[in-house]
Amino acid sequence: MKELGDVIKRQNARLESIEQKVEESRSEMVIAKEELRKMRDHAGQVAQKENARHGPLPNEVKGDVHLLHNKQDLNEQFRGSEGVDSPHNTEVRKFLYEELKKEKSGYSKSSIMRAVTRYYETKRQQYLDSLPARKELVEKKQLEKKLTSRRRRLFAKRMKVASETERESLKQLDSRYMSDEEDGEEGEGGAWVVRSPPWRSQRLSSLLRRLQERVNSKQTPSSHPQNPRVPGMPSMRSPPKSSPPWAVDRSGEHQTPPSFDTPRAEIQQRTPRNHRRAQVKKVPRVGRHLTTPSCLEERVDGALCQRSTEYSSPQSSQSDSFWDSDEIWSVVCQNAPVRERRRKRVLDSGSDSDRE
């Protein structure tokens, strides 16, 4: 028992260390997210002031700046690691302005300079996103863009197959009411994990389900093949601030979502009274574990029997690494009631034989 207590202490210390690292990572993410928000707000305010003063930039001048800049050699392009007023970037801005002015495109001086400066800001943002310190934040931003794009496509497909009455209802909504479709893990055959928002009302979910069935029915052999979908944990997105009452169920907004990440199967086990009893047991995905649950149970039973004979011995042949596995402890805890009933049966049978 002393050795078992030491193992539990080591596991608790390991969990505390992991929790501390998670908290530190969360704090860093909050700080980085706040800095990025301030930068976006500042850039948006600057753009709004320029648009209010001079009007929006024409797409033609922005495209010309882009093409002219990328035609130059790398040593003659903007350096995102330097400020906009650095000697090198100042020369690049001057060159782009003079070249575009020579073409007599009809753009005003202020429009050309604004387009050149705006393109430098794009290069600056690309450089900042490439830094290792912001790698996690950039990946999260890219994932959000991917999910947003998929929700928009999903909303557009359902809008196409909706009837006139259903279309009027959908016009009150947007893509934020759609489910998230994330890339699945390896071993899931390229399936997308569907994460539905828990705050979505039953009425809206039923409507979207009917529309999706129509979308699927219109698929033909020549259509683009769809990725298979599997259910996942509910989305943690918050509902839009201004939502139609019929589309949102506020009672499910703060509920803890159930876990759907592990498939479950129903198996049959015999109880000591020879009755069948249904027991729900986790079934690991293919390739995740090297051993099956039945093999683990046999290993745990054998190890426990061996350890029970070792308590009186100063030496232990069973290494502690065997007990450090979370997988082993899961089987130990799960089968503890069954193991206790077996022990009582043995004791009862022994006492009956003594009385005889």
From TrEMBL:
Low complexity bias locations: 195-209
Pfam short name (any one): DUF4616
Disordered, as annotated region: 40-62, 142-300
InterPro entries linked to this entry: DUF4616, T_SNARE_dom
Amino acid composition bias (Polar residues), ranges on this chain: 217-226
Biased composition (Basic residues): 148-160, 272-288
Domain T-SNARE coiled-coil homology per the UniProt entry, residue ranges: 1-39
Basic and acidic residues compositional bias, start-end: 161-179
Protein name according to UniProt: t-SNARE coiled-coil homology domain-containing protein
